[in-house]
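note to self: dont lose this again. the chain is below, predicted strucutre after it. 305 aa total, dont forget to put it in the shared folder this time
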Amino acid sequence: MLRQEPIRGKWHIVALGRFRDYNQLLKPNLSGMVVFSSVIGYLMAPGISFVWNDFRLWQHIITLFAGGMMVTGGANTINQILERDSDRLMQRTRNRPLPDGRMGDVEAWIFAAVTGILGAVVLAYYFNPMAGALSFFSLLLYAFAYTPMKKVHPVAVLIGAIPGALPPLIGWVAGTGEFGIGGWILFTLQFFWQFPHFWAIAWVAFDDYNRAGIRMLPTREKETRFTGIQCMLYSLVLIPMATVPHVLGMVGNAGMWVCLMAAVMYFGASVVFYVKNDYKSARRVMFASFIYLPTILLALVIGKA
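---
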């Protein structure tokens, strides 16, 4: 009698492929950083202290992270549904499950609805309704305002920066049940961080975006130095902003200095980008943005006053 391992093996291959497709819809690398900032917002809330052996605190953190990942994953999935035709035209996205034809729209919509709604319900039930509602508002703004606007006008970056900056505020609201000044400070820091970050990526991937008709740069031309000027202006704001958490008593001296140095580093990369206006300097801004955000988030929570 013939053994059935080959059939089971094939089934496992199909299942693994489907898992990878769903993983691509979630964009776990991007979502993880976004949700990490939500956890930091929660830990920065008054009355919450990070203690390694506090089981209940870890339960809260894991629940917040899981709910946030579901909401963010739902938003990312809707983004890919609406951009499936554009994704076929770009080198870096053409192999995603929707443009490649490995998954249909209906299945993707079901996945987006289940993850997005379930994540918001988890946050509303486990923490408070305001946190759940704010997370769902973020999903709607990202999916149905930012995504379609990317083909219309560069103001999409401004629109996208709002849901992109909401996670730390959501974390703060989850921890306090209200919109406090500290939460808005965290929102502002992440809001201004995004502009050089987005524009550096858009400059590096200009040809890909241009083929798909996506307008992300503040100008129609790649060669102009206007993008560099804008990166300088928005990153410059982060330097005085680095002192605000200390002034408000949210973080000590050491945390403030780390935030200041990270902001100066980010601004310096933007200045070099303006001067050189080339691929290498644009990538430097992009990598500086990857260093800046986790650095200040960790500095704030470790140096919490």
